[in-house]
């Protein structure tokens, strides 16, 4: 009845370290569904939680892992039966509730989503929060009027989890996606995902800064924030929209109101964590119909629970390409 978990502890000097422990069910938090976790993944936020950076985790000992997929082991909720395949992302699981870096998890049934038809638990964690967020961003841009023949869609932080999946989804949906990256050496991977062009970050930032710049982008999906988001807003075409999903480059936004009042640009914020159930189910279903898992396989790195502390440092240093999948059992 015991299970393995990667348990993090904070020491007196403030350092956080994580080790594999064997636990029993009494250690699981409150919840109405117990899941045998098969796969988890590594997101930027997991890097913060595992290293203690950003102060996201308040209570130790802690099990990180903001996403997981597995099979229901026990359920006190009528919506889930033993043996059902489920996926969980967000709801602050892995931050203030024990997460997916353990062979077993116990959660609130409201947080789960049934695995879409034809998707494996491994597939679901290739997608994870990153893919869900990319899909929600595209949905939002389309709701703001984006259509494939509107022009180029810029994807920043292109080598990251959200960036690579966004490039792939956009290409499958018929959009002209342009990859903006600080690592243009990965250009081949971007074009293999369907990007129509690659823009090196240095080149983009070196363009002279003006209050309003030449309009190029029909839309953009931005993982970076900071200077990159500030500058790209000035280059969005009349009536275009930008989905702001992340802050890998900083939380500041240095821009001005001209893109909004002279070009009618929309800046749409995307949050995947607290998305209501209906929106999650719809997004997972569209991912299942759209995402090219085969075409993405070269961008998947597989690790085990014990490898996570090292992988966490790499994701925070911007040295991960694509998605890190965690084989939990
Ligand atoms: P990754 O670490 O996989 O990717 C982030 C990418 O951003 C990197 O690959 C790099 O791309 C770029 N980048 C990193 N550091 C910098 C920097 N200092 N300046 C400019 N670019 C940088 O993270 P994810 O894709 O998982 O997440 C991206 C962001 O989105 C994070 O901030 C994350 O917290 C946030 N997020 C938000 C969600 C939401 O619900 N709103 C959900 C998921 C993630 P390259 O090398 O190509 O330039």
From TrEMBL:
Pfam families per record: ADH_N, ADH_zinc_N
SMART domains: PKS_ER
Domain Enoyl reductase (ER) residue range list: 18-326
UniProt-listed InterPro entries: Acrylyl-CoA_reductase_AcuI, ADH-like_C, ADH-like_N, ER, GroES-like_sf, NAD(P)-bd_dom_sf, Zn-ADH-like_protein
Name of the molecule in the record: Quinone oxidoreductase
């Amino acid at each position: 009845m015991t299970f393995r978990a990667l348990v993090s502890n904070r020491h007196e000097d403030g350092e956080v370290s994580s080790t594999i422990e064997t636990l029993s069910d009494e250690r699981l938090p409150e919840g109405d569904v117990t899941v045998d976790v098969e796969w988890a993944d590594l997101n930027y936020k997991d890097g913060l939680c595992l290293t203690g950076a950003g102060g996201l985790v308040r209570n130790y000992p802690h099990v990180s892992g903001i996403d997981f997929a597995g099979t229901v082991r026990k359920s006190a909720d009528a919506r889930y039966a033993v043996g059902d395949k489920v996926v969980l992302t967000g709801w602050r699981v892995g931050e203030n509730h024990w997460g997916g870096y353990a062979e077993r998890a116990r959660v609130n049934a409201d947080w789960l989503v049934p695995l879409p038809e034809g998707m494996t638990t491994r597939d679901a964690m290739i997608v994870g929060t990153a893919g869900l967020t990319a899909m929600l961003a595209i949905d939002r841009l389309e709701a703001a009027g984006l259509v494939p023949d509107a022009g180029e869609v810029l994807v920043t932080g292109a080598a990251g989890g959200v960036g690579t999946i966004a490039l792939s989804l956009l290409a499958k949906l018929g959009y002209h996606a342009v990859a903006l990256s600080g690592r243009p050496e990965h250009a081949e991977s971007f074009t293999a995902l369907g990007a129509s062009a690659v823009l090196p970050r240095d080149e983009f930032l070196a363009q002279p800064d003006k209050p309003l710049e030449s309009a190029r982008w029909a839309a953009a999906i931005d993982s970076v924030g900071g200077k990159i988001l500030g500058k790209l807003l000035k280059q969005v075409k009349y009536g275009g929209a930008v989905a702001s999903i992340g802050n890998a480059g900083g939380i500041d936004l240095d821009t001005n109101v001209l893109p909004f009042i002279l070009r009618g640009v929309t800046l749409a914020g995307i949050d995947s964590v607290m998305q209501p159930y209906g929106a999650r189910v719809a997004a997972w279903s569209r991912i299942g119909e759209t995402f090219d898992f085969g075409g993405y396989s070269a961008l998947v790195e597989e690790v085990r629970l014990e490898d996570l502390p090292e992988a966490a440092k790499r994701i925070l240093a911007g040295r991960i390409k694509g998605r890190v999948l965690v084989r939990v059992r």
